[in-house]
Amino acid sequence: MAEDARRGPGPRGAAVREAVMLLLCLGVPAGRPYNVDTGSALLYQGPRDTLFGYSVVLHSHGPERWLVVGAPTADWLANASVVHPGAIYRCQIGKNPNRTCQQLQLGSPHGDPCGKTCLEERDNQWLGVTLSRQPGENGSIVTCGHRWKNVFYMKTENKLPTGGCYRMPSNLRTELSKRLAPCYQGSITAHRVRT
Ligand SMILES: *[C@@H]1O[C@H](CO)[C@@H](O)[C@H](O)[C@H]1NC(C)=O
Ligand SMILES: *[C@@H]1O[C@H](CO)[C@@H](O)[C@H](O)[C@H]1NC(C)=O
Ligand SMILES: *[C@@H]1O[C@H](CO)[C@@H](O)[C@H](O)[C@H]1NC(C)=O
Predict the structure, then answer these.
(1) Which of 79, 108, 150 has the most ligand 3 atoms within 8 A of CB, as the residue to mutate?
(2) Ligand nearest to the CA of 76
(3) Where do the FG-GAP repeats lie (predicted)?
(4) Cβ-proximal residues to 9 (8 Å cutoff; 6+ apart), any chain
(5) Contact criterion met (CB below 8 Å) for 55 and 128
(6) In this structure, how many other beta carbons lie within 10 angstroms of the beta carbon of residue 169?
(7) Where do the domains of the chain lie?
(8) Concatenated DSSP letters for 61-120?
(9) Quick one: which of 42, 149, 141, 173 has its CA closest to 97?
(10) Mutation to probe ligand 1, out of 64, 138, 171, 172 (largest number of atoms < 8 A from CB)
């Protein structure tokens, strides 16, 4: 016994090595090859200098198929004086021979109230930097702008870059969209001020 151990990796050691190799081959998941169809690709183009295509999701609603595209430095058609707020676009797949896309206006172009201790700054907010869609039929779409800022405390030279998101229903009716501000702590701040 002791002699076996001293001899080190003999035929038995080789057998163990082979077994480990076999386990590695069986246990490690292999990559799966797939082909990208470049021949019949659908090409959609957006306005220049908007980072159109920074984020993309495929979307369907009933029989309609859409490509939803983020362009985080786009200007708004509905209010050109907001500085590069970013936007998302919808591009219909099928029945769209000219491959046109339409800008979706999330949030009021005039501005929205955002809380008791909140004043929004939408300039350079990078709306459309991320896009995601709930799985399944008629899932809603969420897009965010991580550089949205609360400038309520500007008098104390603080801008709070908490970011913001919008959730839009599957029918892409932007007037039914809801703003999400998970990092805004308006009620906590208001409480501290009162006490
Ligand atoms: C999804 O939307 C389509 C079109 O509005 C509607 O006909 C269908 O019932 C919806 N499905 C679900 C599961 O809500
Ligand atoms: C596609 O573009 C051409 C040329 O600009 C135009 O004549 C045609 O009406 C457009 N088609 C659609 C469905 O918009
Ligand atoms: C456009 O946005 C700016 C900045 O938020 C705002 O001051 C202005 O009133 C808006 N203009 C219109 C026409 O909504």
Answers:
(1) 79
(2) 3
(3) 35-100
(4) 17
(5) yes
(6) 16
(7) 55-180
(8) ETTEEEEEEEETTPPPSS-TTS-S--EEEEEESSS-TT--EEEE--S-TT-----TT--E
(9) 42
(10) 138
Which tokens go with 78?
């509905």
Reported residue count of the chain is: 195
- Note the Cα 19 to chain centre separation in Å: 45
Strand order across the beta sheet in which 101-104 lies: 55-61, 64-71, 87-92, 101-104
Per DSSP bridges, beta strands 178-180 and 127-133 are unpaired
52-87 tens-digit pLDDT: 999 999 999 999 999 999 999 999 999 999 999 999
**Position 39 confidence tier, pLDDT thresholds 50, 70, 90:** confident
Tell me, rounded to whole angstroms, the distance of Cα 84 from its chain centroid: 18
Nearest to 74 by CA among 62, 59, 65, 86: 86
Q: Report whether 66 contacts 91 (CB < 8 A).
A: yes
Contact assessment for residue 93 and residue 42, using Cβ atoms and an 8 Å cutoff: yes
Integer distance in angstroms from the first to the last C-alpha of the chain? Answer: 79
- Chain centroid offset of residue 139 CA: 15
